[in-house]
Amino acid sequence: MAKDGTRRGGARIGAGRKKNALVDKINDDRLKDTYVLPTPEGLEATDMPPINDYLKQEQKNGEKLYVEEIYKEMWHWLKMYECEALVNQQLIEQYAMTVSRWIQCEQAVSEFGFLAKHPTTGNAIASPYVSMSKDYMKQINTLWYQIYQIVRENASVSYDGPIPKDDLMEKLLRKKS
Predict the structure, then answer these.
(1) For 19-78, what is each residue's pLDDT tens digit?
(2) Euclidean distance between CA atoms 65 and 70, whole angstroms
(3) Which InterPro entries match (predicted)?
(4) DSSP secondary structure string, 40-81?
(5) Who's near 157: CB < 8 A, 6+ residues apart?
(6) 3-state secondary structure of 138
(7) How many Cβ atoms from other residues are within 10 Å of residue 72's Cβ?
(8) What is the pLDDT of residues 98-147, one digit of tens each?
């Protein structure tokens, strides 16, 4: 405690050595302090849980929302690592909805351009879709890092292939004009 009575100092958030991934511990034979869940025998994997109806509602402009497709891709990616039970379904839903909203914003920017007309003065201003797109991309990154951290710490298999986050721009470019 400082002389003025405030509590300062101590460990900072994020300070210290970073945790190693489970797959690194397995490869380095450092499992003495790690608890690895045994693989149950005779159990079958469950199917993907049904996608909630609010994620599939029709859009005001009538265009397709990519939530269902993104949700399925993320679920299958998690299933490949056997981490689908560790990641909360709502986190996957939030990620899928945020990605599809980002795609919607990017489509609006492509359709309407980077500039808009100010409602009162009529002068050119930056399109609101650009800032919304940027905000959605920040949310996507935050949610993705949460999901990826769970997989990184709990997956017992190393994987260097494509990840669902890599397909965002491809989905945007695949959209028919």
Answers:
(1) 777 777 777 777 666 566 666 666 555 677 888 888 888 878 777 788 999 999 999 989
(2) 10
(3) Phage_term_ssu_P27
(4) PSS--PPPPPPPPGGGGPPPTT-PPP-HHHHHHHHHHHHHHT
(5) 23, 81, 82
(6) helix
(7) 15
(8) 999 999 999 999 988 888 888 889 899 889 999 999 999 999 999 999 99
Q: Which pair of tokens denotes residue 61?
A: 């402009």
The Cβ-side half-sphere exposure at 138, using a 13 Å CA radius, reads: 6
Residue closest to 127 by CA, chosen among 142, 141, 107: 107
Judge residue 118's burial from the number of C-beta atoms within 10 Å of its C-beta, 0-12 exposed, 13-18 middle, 19 or more buried. Answer: exposed
Q: How far apart are CA 50 and CA 32, in angstroms?
A: 39
E strands, the chain, in order = 115-117, 124-126
Q: What are phi and psi of 117, to 5 degrees?
A: -100, 130
Q: What's the token pair of residue 54?
A: 């609010």
Q: How far apart are CA 138 and CA 134, in angstroms?
A: 6
The helix-helix angle for 67-80 and 89-112 (nearest 10°) equals: 140
The answer to whether the beta carbons of residues 133 and 145 sit under 8 Å apart is no
What residues have CB less than 8 Å from 93, skipping those under 6 apart? 51, 52, 55, 67, 71
